[in-house]
Amino acid sequence: MTNAAIDITGTGFAVLDRVYPDEGAPFEALGGSCGNVLVSLAMLDHSVAPVLALGWDDVGRRLISEFHQAGANTNYIFRRSDIASPVLAQQVDTASGQHCFSFICPETDEHLPRYRAIESAEVEYATEVLNACSVFYTDRLTDAIVSAMELAHQAGALIYFEPSSIDDWQLFERAVAMATILKCSAERLGSVGPHVAQNSIAIVTHGAAGLEIVHDGDRVWCDAIPAPQVKDTCGSGDMVSVGVIDWFLRQKMHAINAISVGSLREGVVAGQRLAAANCAFVGARGLFSNRSVAYVRALLDDEPADQFDLFE
Description:
Layout: E1 6-11, E2 15-21, E3 27-31, H1 33-43, E4 48-50, E5 52-55, H2 58-70, E6 77-80, E7 87-93, E8 98-102, H3 120-125, H4 127-132, E9 133-138, H5 143-154, E10 158-161, H6 169-178, E11 181-185, H7 186-189, H8 193-196, E12 201-205, E13 210-215, E14 218-223, H9 236-251, H10 261-278, H11 286-290, H12 293-300
Parallel strand pairs: 1-4, 1-9, 2-7, 5-6, 9-10, 10-11, 11-12
Antiparallel strand pairs: 2-3, 7-8, 12-13, 13-14
Helix pairs in contact: 1-9, 5-6, 9-10
């Protein structure tokens, strides 16, 4: 347990990505939107405490090890013998930059283990860290996750909610009522999210065209930043979230209501720079795997990055 303040905690989709580039031999890495965002922020020297449920298996050990190596606090990653840690197969065509996901292994046709959410007992155990965080992130909803969100919200945390779908309207409405920032895809939730989340700042993504920031009648459009090379677009949205949350934490804001559509644009564009650079590599966090943290920090700060070596 800890009494220290935590920059960000969160829960949601964290999996082992098994990536098959051009139908070749696979490589593996921590993935999922929640996993990508939290581990990237830990690598950027923010204090991060994921709250997750994983199996008592080799995949769970691998995922915890990646969080630990990045500098995250892994005390709130719970391992359970009754579940298997999730694995997601990703096939990538580097010529087109397209990818597809499956919970069926392309080598064996066997079903891969799926994501399992935290439960109420795990939320209760994590109460102290939920009360101590500046930002709470989630991309999935269950009763237990909304309870965790409520604890963080009541303690004054910024709530960053990034749903991929609406499976339960009642839970969704409870979540958006607390969300400071709602990030959603125009294709999936663009006509619903900003309308429902009247108290939130909505970041609505429009794929390769760019995105818009919407709140209370104010609207700012951000053109996509051209990628120098496109091998894999997976993880682009997660990199935008990394940029936004990193910006908020570095602003050291004492009042969440100080965030405006105009001010948030700086963080969004920083994330877009990461997203563009990330497209040159295979894997959702290829930028972090192939460039140093100093290089990534320079991109976020819009400073010359070529002065830094590939790795520190």
